[in-house]
Amino acid sequence: MKPNFEQYDDIPGTTIFTMDLARQGFHLNQFCMSLRSAANRERFKADERAYLDEWEMKEDQKQAVLDRDFQRMLDLGGNVYFLSKIFASDGLSYVQAVSTMTDMNVEQYQAMMLAGGRSPDGWRSKKERGEA
Amino acid sequence: MARITAGIATSHVPAVGAAVDMQRTEEPYWKPMFDGYEFSKQWMRENTPDVAIIIYNDHASYFGMEIMPTFAMGIGDSFAICDEGYGPRPVPVVEGAPDLATHVCASLILDDFDMTILNVLEVDHGLTVPMSLMFGTPDKWPTKVIPLPVNVVMNPQPSGERCLALGKAIRRAVASFDDDLNVQVWGTGGMSHQIQGARAGLINLPWDIQFMDDLIAQPEVLQYKSHLEYMVEAGSEGVELIMWLIMRGALGDQVDEVYRFNHVPASNTSVGHLILTPKDN
Ligand SMILES: [Fe+2]
Questions:
Q1: Active site residue B193
Q2: Which domains does chain A have, with CATH numbers?
Q3: Which run of H or E residues covers position B183?
Q4: What was the pLDDT predicted at A65?
């Protein structure tokens, strides 16, 4: 069967971690994996730039990490489960980190979740939303 | 001979594990969700299996991007707990069932499922949170475990058809093992959730409930649902639900629904839980 990675491009506000995007993010995600050890988390926190320079990451990937710009990291081939090692190092929960990718602050995001979450209505297709 | 006596489906939200570990299950935010598992813990005390085959996905906890197996099986004596960035969960080590695992894994390979064999594996919240939900906080887990990690993180994930067929092959494999063992198959993950992008926080409870109904009554139809539909309707991480199809396939054609529970939200997720038993048991 012919792969069709493009079919996911129409989902609004969503970056699907496809095999081809994963290739672009390989070194970024490998850096994230290194943060599974407490010793590495400490070294990273002590000097983030120096730690990042140990990895074959592209400069824009390193900058996105330093900025904690999770959406940018997704765009550059990161995946949220890998990126979770960065926000875990910061002592942040999934809700705290994930909300930064939305147009809400964490309190508004929490309130949305408590009210039943984000309805898929209006969020199914970029074409439908006039974004593509 | 070994028999599959039940299937468990449950979400495996990491924050649920943290709530257990930090003794926050009685707090107003968490209590309604944990109350929904009280029946299950009691049922599990009365129906503790010798072995649970737990279908779950690793969340970049043990597998990096060097090697990304689509279907794998842990055949070791025991499995340590991953450090997912917050330190390992303070739960007991997970004991394996190497004899049954070796038999099932070999049987699956001969049945054309090209399993990756894991003699060493550390398990993450995908496997340990369901155990905490079903068993609480014992000093030692009451059942042995065969971990069956599935790639649901990177697209393409395995198809729904392949997942249902793998479950059926697991049923055959267990039935051909000579020792008299009570085996359960657990399908974990889901239900609707999205934890990335501007669309994060997506929940689709009506869709989740329909998925449960179809999983019970017409898995042969449900297996054809596309990855795209899971992602659009149940969020980018909702595609984890393909793992429930593996559990369902292992139960045979008809099942009885013993228990069902839904709760929104736990962290970013719609929590869903089923206990099913095969009708021909
Ligand atoms: Fe998961």
A1: yes
A2: 15-91 (1.10.700.10), 102-132 (no CATH)
A3: strand B182-188
A4: 98
- HSE toward the beta carbon, residue B103, CA cutoff 13 A: 16
**What are the pLDDT digits (tens) for B44-93?**
999 999 999 999 999 999 999 999 999 999 999 999 999 999 999 999 99
* CA angle B203–B208–B214, rounded 5-degree value: 160
User: Which of B196, B227, B239 to substitute to test the interface with A, most A CBs within 10 Å?
Assistant: B196
Determine the distance in angstroms separating the CA of B254 from the nearest CA of chain A, rounded to an integer: 31
What's the rounded Cα separation, in Å, for the pair A116 and A11? 21
Structural domain boundaries of chain B?
Answer: 3-278
Q: What ipTM was assigned to the predicted interfaces of this complex?
A: 0.96
User: d(Cα B1, Cα B174) in Å, to the nearest integer?
Assistant: 8
- Whole-angstrom distance, CA of residue A66 vs CA of residue A47: 11
* Rg (alpha carbons) of chain A, rounded to whole number: 16
- 3-state secondary structure (DSSP) of residue B154: coil
Report helix, strand or coil for B149: strand
CA–CA distance, A74 with A61 (Å, rounded to integer): 10
Instruction: Please give, one letter per residue, the 3-state secondary structure of A21-63.
Output: HHHHCHHHHHHHHHCCCHHHHHHHHHCHHHHHCCCCCCHHHHH
CATH annotation of B3-278:
3.40.830.10
Q: Give the N- to C-terminal CA distance of chain A in Å, as an integer.
A: 27
**What's the pTM value of the predicted model, to 2 decimals?**
0.98
